[in-house]
Hints:
By secondary structure, this protein is mostly helical. It is 52% helix and 7% strand. The chain has helices at residues 5-36, 40-56, 63-83, 101-107; strands at 87-89, 95-97, 108-109, 112-113. Helix 1 (5-36) runs antiparallel to helix 2 and helix 1 (5-36) runs parallel beside helix 3. It is elongated and about 60 Å long.
Amino acid sequence: MVTSPATAAAATTIKCLAPFARSGYRKILRARSSLFGRDVSALRQSAVIIRQEFDKNKHVTDIDEARNQVNMIDECIEMLKYGIVQGELNDRGNYAVKIDPERSAVTRNDDRIDVEPIDSETVKPKIPEVVKTTAAYNGDGDRNRNKR
């Protein structure tokens, strides 16, 4: 099989990115472990989703797409470490959130820490707007109207 120099270079570049993907996979698993702690259900579910995403993208052959995937790994790690906190429902009906010192430096606003809950009520799917038509279009530039 004869391959062009560009194809060979692309394959080599993608192979060079593979260690970054493997390392990133391990880093994501560690970040989700520190986020979810002893929540076995969240740990299991997140591991399955992470594995699915990596499996879905393991056959990427486009260099730019492969680089984009590696960059998204770093963004995911950043989000897990600093963008998400997990709260536990306490006896008073409030969610108690423990913020690590490294997270509080990022999320602190004066003496108050702002936390927005994420649940089915706060994250609603976008419902497309309904478009109403007032006259039918016949395709020749005129609207179908009663012509005399």
